[in-house]
Amino acid sequence: MASKQLDELRSLLSDPEIIERDSPRYSEQATPWSLWADQRPPLVVQPTSLGSMFKVVKFLYDSDLDFAIRNTGTGSVSAKNVILSTHGFKDFSFDKESKTVTLGSGYDWGAVDKLMEEHAPGYQVVGARCSWVGVSGSSLVGGLSWLSHEYGMISDPQNLLEMQIVLRDGRVLWASEEPDLMWALRGGGGNFGVVTALKLRARPYPTIVFAGIVLFPYSSLEEMSKVVSKMAARTADPRLAMHVVNRGAAFGEAPQGAKPGVAVMMWDAHGEAHARSDDGFGWVFKVSDCHELQAGEMSVREVNALAESFRHWQGRNQFWLCAPLLAEIDDETLVRAWKWWEDAINLFEGFQVGSTVLLEFMQEGAMTSSGGRDKTAWPHYQRRHVMQLGLGCRPEGAPDNIREVAMKQFQKAGPQIAGADKDTKEFHAGFLHEFNDLRDIYGENFDKLKKLKKRYDPNNKFNKGVNLADEKVTAEMTA
Ligand SMILES: Cc1cc2nc3c(=O)[nH]c(=O)nc-3n(C[C@H](O)[C@H](O)[C@H](O)COP(=O)(O)OP(=O)(O)OC[C@H]3O[C@@H](n4cnc5c(N)ncnc54)[C@H](O)[C@@H]3O)c2cc1C
């Protein structure tokens, strides 16, 4: 049955739009970030025009085939029968007069950074901080940028102006023609159709910023925890941003036991002199045993490309990400986060090779600038810091219940890191798992979102990741 339907699907497309398992292009187009999710479907289809995309979407929707929409695979999507790749959609244009960028949904943000440098010097879009992350997947789940503190999330109405989408019946439209649909696409997890293009606001922004990575030994953790908490209380400058992450796998270094050191990644759009002053990150450089790995002025593209060294993680590890939201950072937050990590290593030593704790220090505007809880499908409306937790290991030697171990450890993280009485019980919508209750994630927007899901996907065929119809997150979505 499936093989007959696969043949019918092939017959709708030209040869370059078909990628079989034995093709040299297959691995790049099918491997998910987390090996755990890999289902190695027999076929990847990559339509290169709206004409073939609408035929494919309609065919898949009316078939019994299990399919997944995929851009980069960073969200660890896979399927039993077919992957529908968006890589055939790569057009880019910048309109200086309206300050808008229109781009195909097949790009990753690294490619967009390059195109912005070339075609829109002096402007930036609010896009992800890691060059390999796909433009539409990240927009559909919220999406965070170095520019978010100033302008909000990628999916907010002031940043993501429009999405072109192919619906289940092959209809192609710009979503704001049906405003409820556009609303649902803003952080609602996708699964309403296949996005083929995005229109984004371009902001006049410095091309060159200061970025730095500085390293500290484990012995500096307590001191660092205190100064980061002071920074969070003191700073309201939206042109400053910071990540604090454990050393070891997170920084491409050898495992450092259960007591890893600390790395701080800084962003200061005012430039180097400001970054090194007390108005910027002067305090970071004063913490004991500071070692500058890399610090200086560079282009926004180069900053995002610093994450390139993690790209090789794709398809190497079993990996899961979860991101509880913290209402505040106190003097002990980092110490408790490192303890959570240490507990994970004690549960399974193999987690050392791919696990991270990463605090995304957020300014007020990152989550408040959409203007209210009902402005986007995922309600984000007050200051929150993102505690991004990754648990990863090589598949060899991992116990059969490794996923269960990881999920249990994630569920402990909120109360352990925030403190039991301060746990918000909130999670970033881009990193959800089966234990997340979608009614909690989407709050008062949930019923509207579910109704829209029924209207645009009555048979629940777009069902990977956030599965609104069944009110659950499917196990395949791991990051
Ligand atoms: C190591 C790591 C770092 C990350 N860093 C960032 C970051 O800096 N900022 C940030 O915002 N996020 C970040 N993310 C999270 C990222 O935004 C999500 O994983 C997102 O789902 C990736 O989208 P993708 O298109 O690249 O992935 P994919 O796996 O290709 O897709 C993920 C899901 O998005 C949907 N989707 C993708 N494209 C389309 C489309 N064209 N139409 C309809 N649905 C579509 C599909 O449902 C698919 O299941 C990171 C994730 C990881 C693992």
From TrEMBL:
It comes from the Eukaryota. This is Uncharacterized protein. It comes from Vermiconidia calcicola.
